[in-house]
Please model this.
Amino acid sequence: MRPNSTQEFHELIRMAHGSGANEVGIIDAREVPVLDSLANLCGETPCGAFGLGKNCPPHVSGPDGFRELMKRMRYALVFRIDVPEAVMFSDDRNEVFGLVQETVAAMENTAIQMGYPDSKGFAGGSCKTIFCHDHAACRVLSEQGTCRNPTRARPSMSGFGIYVRELLEKAGIPPDKRNVRQDDQEPMTWVAGLVMLGGTTDRR
Ligand code: SF4
Model:
């Protein structure tokens, strides 16, 4: 089931585009593809951040937890931001991942205000690497307090086994690089964000 209209989600779509999203799509929450094998890659091929923050495995609920979340959700809003490959191979990649984390966090908050109180944002990268690289440890995991960046940091889709390429395709968004080249043919890649919209509301 798709929403009858994107009108209701105009503000969320505007926010995504405001952060540079090239494409935005909305599908039924139950259509989000989740694979245990993808989540397992976090532990098998550590990215350097495995276990360092509370938003990364093994500290997140993983595919099983996400499947439970899906039962409470109505819609999945996904967006793609096109980025030059050179940027993602540079030190600037954390700025890009930080932008995605901040965007889905802000959209999550807006979705809650719209009447979807259980909404959750998901991004890419590790919040420990992106926001807390100057700190020795995640403040939550070290039991020193709450998250230093509660309005910015959100979990990576990787730790939940979300198959992002298929998710984009289901939302009608082409993930193929050939579709995201600039006129000057600079090699491009993409990053994606996801906001799960759900919860009870008097508006529906
Ligand atoms: S304190 Fe830092 S590392 Fe820990 S969850 Fe928050 S942003 Fe991530």
User: Anything to note?
Assistant: Confidence is low (pLDDT under 50) at residues 1-5. Strands lie at 23-28, 73-84, 120-122, 188-198.
